[in-house]
Automatic annotation (TrEMBL):
The keyword tRNA processing does not apply. GO terms for molecular function: ATP binding; fatty-acyl-CoA synthase activity; medium-chain fatty acid-CoA ligase activity. This is medium-chain acyl-CoA ligase. The keyword Glycoprotein does not apply. It comes from Sylvia atricapilla (blackcap). Pfam families: AMP-binding. GO terms for biological process: acyl-CoA metabolic process; fatty acid biosynthetic process. Belongs to the ATP-dependent AMP-binding enzyme family. The gene is Acsm4_1. It catalyses: a medium-chain fatty acid + ATP + CoA = a medium-chain fatty acyl-CoA + AMP + diphosphate. Its EC number is 6.2.1.2. It is an enzyme of class 6 (ligase). Residues 52-169 form the AMP-dependent synthetase/ligase domain. Keywords: ATP-binding, Fatty acid metabolism, Ligase, Lipid metabolism, Nucleotide-binding.
Amino acid sequence: PPRTFHRNNRLLTSQITSYYESISQGKKELPEYFNFASDVLDEWARLEKDGRKPANPAFWWVNDKGEEVKLSFEELGALSRKAANVLSKVCGLQRGDRVVAVLPRVPEWWLLNVACMRAGIVFFPGTSQLTAKDILYRLQASKAKCFVTDDERAPAVESVLAGSQFLKSKLLVGKGSRDGWLNLNELL
């Protein structure tokens, strides 16, 4: 028997599989444009709001200290719209521009991922173990216009800024502040 996802009997594994099989066989049209944030996230939020889909967390993050962040589809959608506005209006990024994010796996990492999808901005994730040399390479190769990191990794970015001619803005995640950096959490 097919297994259910989040105890929702309407979303069966076999139904998902058959849907993708019908696409691959040409029985369903692929949309010309697809945006996960608006086509999936916002649609699920609407279905929950209308009572046609049971409420389930869209995002549930727990760290090793037991702290957790749990967001509904509506909350994640609203936050991702705010983050997309920060990237496009405050940072001046446009569709196709690139953002490098070097962060540990904190909730803002996923939020930025969805915000970039929503705004058509290319998201370049980087492990938090990158050295200054690694960061410079990624900045030059990607021609990123924005860099996002936390206070612990910001000095490595600052040490290579002279080698990055495309970078327009720097976003800091967390409660700290640094000269020349915008604080993402405050802007949200």
